Amino acid sequence: MSAVGESRPSVVDGCAVVLVDDRLGDVVPAEAVPWLRGAGEVYADPGLAESTRDSLGAAAPPEHAELLRRAAREPVVLVAPDDHSAAVRELLAAGAREVRAAPPPGVELLDAVTVMDRLRSPGGCPWDARQTHESLRTYLVEETYELLEALEGSDRGAMREELGDVLLQVLFHARVAAEDAADPFDVDTVAAELVSKLVSRHPHVFATDDSVHDAESQHARWEELKQREKQRESAVDGVAHGQPAAALAAKLVQRAERAGIPAELIGDDSHPGAELFDAVARAKRDGGDPEDTLRAASLAFDRRIRTAEARARTSGADPARLSESDWREYWPKADETGEIDEPG
């Protein structure tokens, strides 16, 4: 904490401006306690939240000249949410000590929760108010894919935006859940369960556990603890069947390998679907991500189509009227476009 100016005039000797973030509730910085104890008068800036003003039991500060006169007679402390008010500026300009605590990481999440609550409450947004878990499902999927695209493109601005959109979905579902008559829960319940899970699944961090030495052993330990916590009866319990097919197959292969199932039993080439599963299994065993591999190949195919169409236009042909022989003529090879069908 720092004072305003190198020295403080005696007129405000012992006086302080305590800046609090009332999003955190009725909390004052620890450094402010001695100032509050030694104060002759404590005032609450009108900009403070009502609950904070009530907890302080303090009156609003008098007009500025009177405030400074009182500060000359005895130590005065003004508690405020920021340094924007005239009373705060007057005291600081006269040399009062500024006392504030740095906000903890995540404090902006409190504003996000508050805004979501406002939108969903009476007098808020009619569209937000009528949404349900079911109606929001499609948005969760869309926002997740948009985030994946931003990550794939390493677009920092898009990543910030799309992470926020995914966070909105979490806040929205938690707010809807809080209204359930039979089994309500809120965002604090969600966060508390997450914290409990993270702590219990990382005993090498939060307790004494020497079984984890690297990322791979941690992954195995995580699955072991998860199976024990959830009392799963099968090695594939808990695999989400609603995920994309390649991701589902890859997850099942991972679980099968972790369970010790021999490689020759993983897969069956008796029909086209099984052949696709075998391809996913091979990619997974080779250390790749089948979903990413398939996506990369699909995007490469997309680019080849666009390249062929561009070549056709350059030659004066209409891409919408190309024959099979035309497509063969304009179709680029992988090395011509600099594309690699499958990362390896």
Give an overview in words:
Helix content is 55%, strand content 5%. The relative contact order is 0.06. It is mainly α and 344 residues long. The longest helix has 25 residues, at 290-314. The protein is built from 16 helices and 4 strands. This is XTP/dITP diphosphohydrolase. Keywords: Hydrolase. It holds the Pfam family MazG.
Q: State the secondary-structure class.
A: mainly alpha
- Distinct helical segment count: 16
Indicate how many domains the architecture comprises: 4
Overall, the morphology is: elongated
Question: Could you tell me the strand content as a percent range?
Answer: under 5%
Distance between the termini: 53 Å
How do the SSEs run, as a string of H and E?
Answer: EHEHHEHEHHHHHHHHHHHH
Task: Describe the structure using short key phrases.
344 residues, disordered C terminus
Topology:
Elements: E1 16-19, H1 32-38, E2 41-44, H2 50-56, H3 64-73, E3 76-80, H4 86-93, E4 97-100, H5 108-120, H6 126-129, H7 133-152, H8 156-177, H9 187-200, H10 203-206, H11 215-230, H12 245-258, H13 272-285, H14 290-314, H15 324-330, H16 334-337
Parallel strand pairs: 1-3, 1-4, 2-3
Brief account:
By secondary structure, this protein is mostly helical.
